[in-house]
Amino acid sequence: MAGHMSEGEAQDKEKFPYHHAIAEVLNGEVKPFDQYQGPYVKTGYGKFWIIWEDMRFKIYNERTGEESTYFPPRIKIEDFKGYFRSFVNSLTKEAV
After folding, report:
1. How do 38-43 and 56-61 pair as beta strands?
2. How would residue 73 be classed by pLDDT, with cut points 50, 70 and 90?
């Protein structure tokens, strides 16, 4: 299959650090999708996708259709986790 991503590729924390940060915050799993779009994160709050546009990215929750604001490229993982928690809290109305 063209563009297929393996489980091993999806588990590469250096290649997909923000995906793994989301999984850590929400106790989810990084799952393979394809090599072009990248993996997604499966959680109890739905699937989360990272959408890259013009060297910055945002988070999309497939279940709710909600999107975060854009994050700057190369944001530090700990800073990202804090912003991501705020995004999820606004979606769920509960602290994560």
Report:
1. unpaired
2. confident
